[in-house]
Amino acid sequence: MGLFTSCFGDIDNHHNLYGYHKRVRQSGRRAAVTKAMIGKPENFVHTGHLGIGTVRGNNNSLNTDPEKLRTLMSQVSAVIDEDTLLGVPTEARRPPVPAAVGVASAMSEQTTLPGPENTPPSTPLEAADSTAAAATATESSGKTTITTAASVAEASSSTPRGPFPTHGLLPRTDTQAGEFVRKNPSYDGRGTVVAVLDTGIDPGAQGLQTTSDGKRKVVDFVDCTGSGDVELGEPQRCASGALELRGASGRMLRLNAEWTNPTGEWRVGAKRLYDIAPSSVRGAAKREREERFRKEAQRVADGVGAQRGKESKQGKDVKEDKEDKEKGKDGDKESKMTELDAQAAALALLGTAYEDSGAMLDCVVFHDGTQWRAAVDTEAAGDLTHAHAMGAYKTTGDVALLSRRQLLYFTLNFYDDGRILSIVVSAGPHATHVSGILAANHADEPQNNGVAPGAQLVSLLIGDHRVASLETGVALTRAAAAIVEHGADLANMSFGEPSATHNAGQWVQTLRAEVVRRHRCVFVASAGNEGPALTTVGAPGGTTAGVIGVGAFVGDEQMRTDHGMYEFVHDTSFTWSSRGPTADGARGCDVFAPGSAIASYPAYTQQRLRLANGTSMSSPNLCGCLALLVSAWKQQQQQQQNGGASARISPYRISNALLATARPFGDELGAGLVQTDDAWQFLMRHRQRVYEDVDYAVAVLDMGGARGVYLRNAEDSAQPRHLKVSVAPIFVDDAGDALEFDADGRRGQAANQRRFDFEQRVLLTADAPWVRVPDALYLGSDGSVFSAMVDATRLEPGRLHVATIRGFDSGAVERGPIFTVPVTVTKPLAVGPGAYVRLGTLSFQPTDVVRRFIAVPAGATRARIVLRTPNAEAHAAAPALFYLHCLQLAPQERFTAYELKERVSIGHPSFAAGAGSAEQRYQRFMDVLGGATLEVCVAQFWNQVDGHAVDVAVDFHGITPAGSQSARSPGGASGLGAAIAINGNYGVVRADFSAAVRPEYGVRPKATLDVLRTALRPLSATVAPCASERDIHPASGVAIHRLVLDYALETKSDGATIRPRLPALDGKIYESWADDFALAIFDANKRRVASQISYTASVTLRRRGSYLVRVQIRHRNEKDLEALKTAPLLVDTQLATKINIPTFPTLAAAFTGTVVGSRPAAGGSIARGATVPLFFRTELTGVPAEAKPGDVLCGSLSLSAQTAELPVEYVVPARAPAAEKPKAAAAAIDSEAALTPAESDRRALDEAIRSLRIGWIRKAKDDGVREQLVGDLLASDDADADFRAAVLSAQLDALDPARKTHLPWSDGARLTADAARSAVGVADRIVELTYPLALTVGLLQNQGHQAAGVGDADRRRRLLLAEDARDRLVGALTTKCRALAFLTTQPTASSRSSETSVDFVDVVAASGDGSLGHWLADYEKAVAELARWTGEKLQAEDAPFLVATLPLLVAKQSYGRALLSALRWIDGAPLLESNAAERRAMVELRDLLVSQLGWSVWADHLRDLALVERPSSYEAL
């Protein structure tokens, strides 16, 4: 439960380290007795500790004198048998136990160790019984408890005390489930279907294969998230005579000749294994793959290293004479060493950038004439000749291994007429464990069975692989539809989140109205693991009407087996279990069930069974108990109707029976432990009572329709509250009552007749004197209203006070209340002028939870909570773990907004061993909301067995903006609340601050900014209905609409940390008005780099560059989405360096520079009630260049160490205008004479015509037209050198149009031998024309460093012309190099498609018109000349330069040097849309060079990685 969705609670094993000390049992521990001390069977409630139980009477633990208990000994052996109590099948029971020995014998004989002369009892069970009989009573804190001699005798024995208590693996005794099945073997869940909304059940898990009556355990596996979807291409056919297809991965796929495909059409797609593998499998596979890859890559590196060593040795041993040196042999060796060094460096760079893409699994889908089938290439080898083509699991039961080594199983589904293949894979172990508790059936090991082994399951995956298995809105809506489609009787959901608004939201309404009420599905959900503070239940389990919310119970059955405790505490709830009430006063946690179990686990974890704790475990335990009831009801109904179909039992009838019979065990709010058999007896007693199928909606009208009375803040209980309470019946609907199914109106008539006949004459009671209600209420089908008075004025402040208003059917009072109105009062303690509250020394016994409530003073922003343990003398108590949980509620905020929750260890051994007066002291701080009640909850962890004392004190501090600037205190979940606004255009901004709570000392204001917040408007926005058949809304029956918004985002540095969000939808799932919110970030390669739901979080983008942020919002109403088509996306970018805002005590100081940091404002203190101004200078240094005027810089203002930081928002001011850049001269520099208007017009027209004709040189498609145009322009009378260079540059662009984006030999370059030779000639002419003027660039730039003079404008014009000439020269040399690269080096046609190597051909020699050496020499000279005109930075970072020059290294077989340059460019280049073609060319060159070097391991890796790094389209959200 909670932000990460998993309902696993605290794993308690490590806490048991504190439970090993032998102590005299104290108050609060379970009274342990033997069966010999129990009388009637109904008084015995088995605890799971073999032979030890607890006497109960009237549903409460009964501390009874052992002497009285011993008198009942004679009744035990004939009445009670442990296996009977456990519900263990007859064939699985242990041999019978001999008659119990007498008490006197047990007490005298079992105090010594077994030996040859003292034979132990014949069975371990008998030993446990007889030892436990030696019990003595002790007094502790005024309560009687029982201590057994077993704690001494058995602790010192080396002989095990008994067989393993297998019945405690999965607790069923405390809930009566085991006894119920024992008495009714066929009522074990058979005939029921239970939907499990979770992370997806593992098809390979043990115990989840068949039911107890031999049916398939899992009816269907459904991926509701879509994260396993494979989008398939258009149908294609195999080439004639070949059963092969080109897969989506690029591999050729060889198909199975035995497949039946009447149409001969195939669809292909691909899915990356890592995108659908659970995190544990993904991690293991990555480690194994990387280890294997590194070994192979190391062999390549070793080969290069060996060559380097060989060349180095030869260079030392061989002495070259002068003649050899002149011949260049030393130069050759040096060049070879340089090449090998480059290869080694390239390998190192490849290794550093290594990324495991995971296996890309090709999928082939076809129709066999009956159904869709698919084969998945799980080996990623392309060989499907022996593959099994799987069908949809629901119809075929097909299951296969997706990863053989990792034992990862999968199933398939098909949607939209075969256009979507769904690969269904578990997203985590959670669902499997939950399902094991609920319904596992281990035929050979019945002790491992779930609660309802006969039930069938529907696995509904709602935990999305893309967002760390969090639930999504899409998944929840599809799951609701799947529940209806599969006709599930019950549903279990061990998922949930804190909710800002209880009992509201699009999905919550759908669940309540369609799933529960109309389709009669009993919906059970976990309450959460966010306790022990109040109002910590999550949605939907603890906050939604119609959903049964379950808390986590722990009894000694679990203590013995699940948690390995040698001493037990009394029945309790787990400390971390969430508590009610809800914010609107409802119960919150309806019932409790065992919250731990050792149950089935996925095969891919390599663990059959595993312990897990949490309300995630209590929810399926309860759901299993209810499945037993539904199973029993169905079977009885069928018997009564002679095997005919029976009407489904309503969820309201089940819920009524459950709540009416739950056994109280000490929950503060009155929730009890499920009692299965008692609930069944209730159902049978009231089977004829039609009103059991009615629920009641309670609304406190004076409190906004709240479902209960919750007086939390001081003003709520300051005077008596007179309230109006509305009660209205809710009738269960029937799906068949809908108009489309009721042509003759009979079903509607019957339904309305039931409403017409409804009448309840209700008797009202209240169980507390401070709550008054009328005696009676008449209730018709339209409901009624009664008055109530709650007077909390005389209640003790600081404590929790609970009452309940109950309504009884006057004709069936013995049935129990038909509705209740919870009343909860947390009357807070007032805080005095010192803003300090001491709660005193609190004494704790095992399982104790102490909560106090404090009225936080208005203006307080921070609280300090101090815990002290005096340790005045050495004590024998074992150290204990405590929870400190402090919490406030803010309207329509999640309870996590103002929360402190920490674990604290009390009684540390260093203090316990004679520390004397040494004191343990824990000090914690939390932000608070002034005026709201703060709960301070201190709880001794449930399994800590000794008593402790803790002193608790709280004090408050606060400095807040004064007057109209008053801002909400920090701590809100959204982070977008009111803040101190500083407008950067103001120069100086003033803000006043006051200390309303107490004098504040140590005031040292410091304002910093660390986040840049920008608002992006969408580039595009489209609203359309969802196309998939899965996206029909279960309530309306029409397609859900979706709005897709695309935003352009650009980062300026590597490793930028951003957080994108839409405030209107941020942080909301269950309470959201929309069906779903999803967000994905794609890089310039279209690769998805992040996926998020409405709980948006910070994302680090590894590479600077361009990104697309795509947002999808789904809703049933198209008009509501249209209103969001221009919604801005807020993007928070973390600044690399914080910006300080200068802060001053006076306005004058803001200009004279006296900073507050160097001289404390107001003497470093603010008196209580005083107001102090601060002045902020708004001209800041360090504002990032990407911050545009109107953007916001966010940060905080710290005023003192004791007060909370206040949020600050700084509006980026308007920028000073940039200096205008000079424009290039339009005419020759020496043409300075003034022109007449006519001459000016003619000159402008001539220039325009010439520019147009030059432009057509690039556009002309016919070579003849282009050549004629070039000739005419060059022959014109006014064609000066600059003009001719422009004409020739245009001609050069036409000869090589792709010079910046494609390798010279690539198909995209469209070069030919003739065009390359022509390009060389044209480039030489351009160099000749531009060279003299280009040489003057340096001279003119140097002149620019001198002081501006009379000729400065003339110099700038000359410099622009010179730079233009230089650019043309560099461009010409670049194209010349590309042309020569084409003439000297290019792959052969056969090697273009090779995956392992590349061969090069001599194009010129092949054409028969020259030697390769001539062109190669020219190429070397051209590269050298080009390098002269470019700096080192450009040579390393300019892709056109590298694409033009690196082929020279290829031609000289210096592949390593070329590869190293390419890798460095790829590693450093930003991922921009504008350089996409350049990146593509450099990656192509990299891959070619790796293949040419023969590094097949890297070639294969890079080819596979390309499928992930550069997908062909954006992935669906």
> What's the total number of strands?
64
Mean pLDDT level: 82
Strand content: 15-25%
Number of H- or I-type helical stretches: 35
Describe this structure in words.
The protein has 1517 residues and is of the alpha+beta class. Helix content is 28%, strand content 24%. Strands 7, 8, 18, 21, 22, 23, 24, 25, 28 and 29 form a 10-stranded mixed sheet that branches. A hairpin with a 2-residue loop joins β5 and β6. The relative contact order is 0.08. The N terminus is likely disordered.
Can you give keywords for this protein?
single chain, globular, alpha+beta, 1517 residues, 35 helices, seven-stranded mixed sheet
Annotate the secondary structure layout.
Blueprint: E1 33-34, E2 44-46, E3 52-57, E4 60-61, H1 66-70, H2 76-79, H3 82-86, H4 103-109, H5 124-132, E5 135-140, E6 143-148, H6 150-153, H7 177-183, E7 193-198, E8 218-223, E9 229-231, E10 244-246, E11 252-254, E12 267-272, H8 279-317, H9 322-327, H10 329-352, E13 360-367, E14 372-376, H11 393-396, E15 400-403, E16 408-415, E17 420-424, H12 430-439, E18 456-461, E19 463-464, E20 470-471, H13 473-486, E21 490-493, H14 506-518, E22 522-526, E23 548-554, H15 556-561, E24 572-573, E25 591-594, E26 596-600, E27 609-613, H16 615-640, H17 651-661, E28 663-664, E29 672-673, H18 676-685, E30 694-700, E31 709-711, E32 721-731, H19 746-757, E33 760-766, E34 771-772, E35 776-779, E36 784-790, E37 800-809, E38 817-826, E39 836-844, E40 849-855, E41 862-869, E42 880-888, E43 898-906, H20 909-912, E44 920-927, E45 933-940, E46 948-957, E47 960-961, E48 980-983, E49 988-994, E50 1000-1001, E51 1006-1016, E52 1020-1025, E53 1041-1051, E54 1056-1061, E55 1076-1083, E56 1088-1092, E57 1099-1101, E58 1105-1115, H21 1118-1122, E59 1129-1141, ...
